[in-house]
Amino acid sequence: MDNIVTTLDQLQTLKPRFISVTCSNNKNDIEETTLKLAGYINNTLNIPAIAHLPAAYLSAEQVKRILTELNALNIQQVLALRGDIIPTVPCKKDFRYASDLIKFVHIQEPTFKISGACYPEIHPESPDLVSDIHYLKQKVDAGCTQLITQLFFDNDKFFGFKENCALAGINVPIIAGIMPITNRKQALRLIKTTSAHLPKKFLAIFDKYEHDPESLRTAGLAYAVDQIVDLITRGAEGIHLYTMNHAETAINIQKTIGSLFNTNEQPSK
Length: 269
Known about the structure:
Blueprint: H1 2-12, E1 19-21, H2 27-44, E2 49-54, H3 60-72, E3 77-81, H4 98-108, E4 113-118, H5 129-142, E5 146-149, H6 155-167, E6 174-178, H7 184-193, H8 200-208, H9 213-233, E7 239-241, H10 247-257
Parallel strand pairs: 1-2, 2-3, 3-4, 4-5, 5-6, 6-7
């Protein structure tokens, strides 16, 4: 907790539009940790906080209690997710999909700003693109006012996804999720587990600097910077950095291209 607070204090200097606070699939983690950190961000650092809520692991009564606590903290933003399905962790029965939770929150607290997750390269469990966009439209129709993408490394995939959303009548802001790759372990994990397309340029960086940690970090940050510059230039509505609790990553990016963000387009964390 001390390390996270130190990271948050450093991120405050960047004046982000918001900082999101994730959680594990555990109600105690949400109520005892997520809300505590969100309150610190919102009320001590004076930065808008977004609390993650995993639909599959919360009951309706728990969500009501969490919304009451968020109101008490003067927080009115949530990111409603289904949550990763883990065989060893029992799911609750009230919310099967993220859209169910979004609809419930929207009815309970109509003034809340509800963010939803989206996958520029299709959710791993979706049978096809049409189905994926259909379910995403259900989230928006249920009350989602903003979408934040899963990480991606090919900007053309993102802009193709945006076009498909527009054709489907999805007209809420879509924030581009970027994860700078700064170490070998992180890169290996992504290569093995991510469904995101890994361009030749990305793989070449990993191959060339596989045994040179400092150069891999520098090249990984440079790749993320190139992505962000291209996204902003081509009209992306916002950038969400997956900082993984490492403030220096966001600070370095801000130093390099911070002038590209005006007061209404600050990068989120």
